[in-house]
Specification:
Layout: H1 6-24, H2 29-39, H3 62-67
Amino acid sequence: MFAGSDRGAERAAVMATLIMTARLNNIDPKAWLADVFARIADMPQSRLHELLPWNWTPPTSTSSAQAA
């Protein structure tokens, strides 16, 4: 309704769906999206399902493990 165009409304709907799906899976949407955007370019197409909210696991922090 307030997207300005049909195409803008479709993109807003996709983003809202992704954010709500992450929330329904008890995942911080900002952390999930940031990780997906960082990893998706290097991810083989056959493994993209790993980035879906219900399969996603947050990246482990290696800096704290190296410091110990």
